[in-house]
Amino acid sequence: MIFGIMQHQKLPRRRIQGEPFYHHPAEEVATAFSNEIRRKNVLVTDTSVGGIGFEAARVIAKYANLVIITGHNADRLKIAEDTLKKEVPSANIRKLILDLSSLAAVRNAAAEVNAFPEPLHVLIHNAASVIGPFKLTADNIENQAATNHIGPFLLTKLLCPKLLASGTGQYVPRVVFVSAKGHMFCEGVNFDTLERPDPESHEGMNAYFQTKVANILTGIELSKRSKGKINAYSLHPGFIDTNLLHKGDIPAALKKMGAFDADERPSNETYAWKTIPQGAATTVTAAFDPRINDKPGSYLDDCVVANETVAPHASDPGNAERLWTLTEKIIGEPFTF
């Protein structure tokens, strides 16, 4: 479906066949949805300066009542806080130390948020682990799976009461998962290795792609199980060139995908590359666009619903239910409403 431009707001347009991409920065999107952002309390995971999460937090903070920023490194988190307050003097910013790779750390962070007096309107899962070799966490979970899926699942579960407290007859709280188009470059979640990590079969990029599948499936199942009490969405922010993409085995994988050319530079022949502000635009859209209220569980790309582009293994209801049940087993507690 292609959304047009609303009469009272200038909104991003989706690429139409034969036309160029329309890359609107997150700031324009936040301005368009400023009425929806006002009086909202928002938590964004991984808000390191120079990243998509920071940019989303920055533009949201111009209008929101409260923005909770997170990171596992206290020094970098303080830099993010200072930078946000300098760029948006009116912003109400609150720091939260959060290590998504540790179930105990997630529980500690959730307890801190639950002690805040304010309800939580929007939870944005932006954090992702660095793609790398096999590594087990203290909970015996593969590190990328822990940071990108298990930790966010547990955090959502623990913050669910605070999210539900923000719901009204006119407003449904939202949970947003930053996924990736790369979800289609794997065969889906390997449920066996998710439960029993296997260093012999591990491949860093494939493990990353599987977590992006998990993000989409969790958004679908969360929306289904909440029965209208929470609207969850997943999204592809776009291809964005950062130093991270030039490390380890990542360049070779991106060349195979057609995202990098032979010289390991971004190629626009297959995919349109974006700046960080442009990448954060879809995050802000998923968090606040009122036109997707009736499309919970949807996947967004270029600021619009793009469910038709989701790979079958990432949209299968059976996979979504199986992943939910297995993740409950891994965290050791049920996620019910």
Automatic annotation (TrEMBL):
Entry keyword DNA repair: no
Domain of life: Eukaryota
Entry keyword set: Oxidoreductase
One Pfam short name: adh_short
Residues forming coiled coils: none
Gene Ontology terms, MF aspect: oxidoreductase activity
InterPro entries given in the database record: NAD(P)-bd_dom_sf, SDR_fam
Family, per entry: Belongs to the short-chain dehydrogenases/reductases (SDR) family.
Stated name of the protein: NAD-P-binding protein
Species, as recorded: Mycena albidolilacea
